[in-house]
Amino acid sequence: MGPEGHENGRVPVLHDQWREPLRALRDPLAEQPGRIRSNRDEHKRWRKQTWLGRFVSTYGWRAYALPVLVVLTAVVIYQTITGTSAPPLVADAEDPVQGPPTIGAASTEIVGAPPKGLTEFDANLPTGILPDGGPFTPAGAGTWRIVPGATPQVGQGTTKVFTYTVEVEDGIDTTTFGGDDGFARMVSETLANPKSWTHNPQFAFVRVDAAAGVPPDFRVSLTSPMTIRNGCGYDIQLEASCYNPAFEGQPRVFVNEARWVRGAVPFQGDVGSYRQYLINHEVGHAIGYQRHEQCAENGELAPIMMQQTFSTNNDDAARFDPGTVVPDGKTCRFNPWPYPIA
């Protein structure tokens, strides 16, 4: 007797059905309606799809995002190679002045000085008096020297690229405030500041000198008070600066040396900030902003085209410019920039 249960020690040979893997005689899940199809059916269905359908089925939402990414990449590469880009906005929503500039408008009218014909005006109004300070040249020669030097273009200039020279009246001694180069540097650096006019993509500036051989669009000229009276008028006996578009046949921004040295009473900032204001304000006239502005709300920064040399209060400013400013009691804070929050 062999091992227990087996005769003669032999293991019985199993029936053929036991040699195959065990499996259920039927698939109860397949017989139930609504169940998921078998993998074989899914594979057949997948093979019948188009290549696009198979791509979407495989990658899901990425199938839609990938073509968009490819297009954007191609646009960026094209703009990088060609130097093009989307057109810039003309200006910020908060433009520093009312209305668009009158660029290139032909005019001979002096802009910036107190208007002529005021019959009721007190020239001793405290806000307009020249404050005490350092010495200046009362009267120069009435001719100007161009300060040598040029600068690359600053700003985009989608509408206009302005060329300008920096000049000093003969007879003015500039050694007390950095010399001729110091004045020229202050002008160029102010106009190149992102808070200045080039924040608006319409504008660009290029400083040129006598070597350019071509008349500039305007001349920024440091000028003595007596010569200013000839270029800006003196109906109101206050030291002013102005823009004269046709002085001796040349557009000239007159910067009063007395104000450059001493500043202004209403402008509560330091003299450096006042000089920046003076450049931005008068150049603003030269590039097409002819009208003056008034304080919009109490305590806000004054608009750059407000006559801050004379007042930052609308009641006082209305006495200098009654045709533009409404006396409503509002007072602003000094501000040297067209776009102070740029």
TrEMBL record:
UniProt name for this protein: Uncharacterized protein
InterPro entries on file: DUF3152 (IPR022603)
Lineage: Bacteria, Bacillati, Actinomycetota, Actinomycetes, Mycobacteriales
Pfam families: DUF3152
